[in-house]
Amino acid sequence: MNLSDLKNEWIKEFSQPMMIAGPCSAESEAQMLETAKRIKETNAQVPIFRAGIWKPRTKPNGFEGVGVIGLNWLKKVKEEYGFLTATEVANAHHVSAALEADVDILWIGARSTVNPFTVQEIAEALKGTKKIVLVKNPVNPDLALWIGALERLLGQDIQNLGAIHRGFSTYQKTKYRNNPNWQIALDFKSQFPNIPMLIDPSHICGNRTGLADITQEALNVGYQGAIIETHSNPDEAWSDAAQQITPEVLATLISNLKVRNSGLAGFDDEMGRHRTLISDLDFQMIELLSQRMKISEQIGKLKKENDIAIFQPERWKVIAEYAVQKAKETGMSQDFIEKVFKAIHEESIEKQNNIMIDRI
């Protein structure tokens, strides 16, 4: 069986969008039950409660989760409030403990997805399970790794599969904690429309302010749900405090979402996908231009220190020739490319002029 052959009937058991919510990390029984109680009291359509039991951290000596004891708190959440439960697993030991605690949904995190050996270990530990297993995209923008992780799970006869888009790490600082890179996720969806896709706006944004927009954007292009970090007291959270929201804020966010009928795929759906990709590319262009201007400022400082004129005719000649070359290679208008490069060059000169006369 191939991934494209999966029916994935499990998604039909949930209303759309399928919402998963709960704290980034399980911290105490009281915190778990309080968060679950308040989610339930808001009447938000959240059937699944999540919590990180084991927390892989970038650096040592940080909070790395409460461990197995947290699974007992997840069981209490299920017993007292009727939620299905979900947690991340990163090795065979985690899988064994989570299955013993009857956790309903398991997900493989971005740091694990990037390592085929880790995924294979998890897949073999889950062999033949009927549990729902979700796979987050790898930390680096590699579609093959993402698909490969799901194929390894399918190879162990795990058939209730789904994907989580949580964005991709980048060295450059941007407004996102992890850049969405919508193109990669939409390529995945195009290749495997039968595999449910959820958005993880918490890890994409890294803050609370952009959660609603990212979630709505995902629903606009046919995602089936979201996993949103929710905490009874976000500001005091032991991990990722800035990106967690209260149950009440979550309920408002969900009530404002507009779900599109994915069964009516047509002009509007396709237009939505194209617009999302354009927005993503526009964001990347602006970020790159910002980086370019910072380099221009450094060049301006060097020119000032060495009494060198800002405008260098030979350099502009090289830029103009490069524009002509790129126009031919890409099939775009030479006039358009020259206008773009001219605008960039003029802005660069303006930046350097500001440095010359001490405006910066």
TrEMBL record:
Keyword field: Transferase
Give the Enzyme Commission number.
5.4.99.5
Q: Which GO terms describe its molecular function?
A: chorismate mutase activity; transferase activity
Q: Which residues form the Chorismate mutase domain?
A: 265-356
Q: Which domain of life is it from?
A: Bacteria
Enzyme kind, highest EC tier = isomerase
Concerning InterPro entries, the annotation shows: Aldolase_TIM, Chorismate_II_sf, Class-I_DAHP_synthase, CM_dom_sf, CM_II_prokaryot, DAHP1/KDSA
GO annotation terms (biological process): chorismate metabolic process
Task: Tell me what this protein is called.
Answer: chorismate mutase
Organism for this UniProt entry? Chryseobacterium aquaeductus
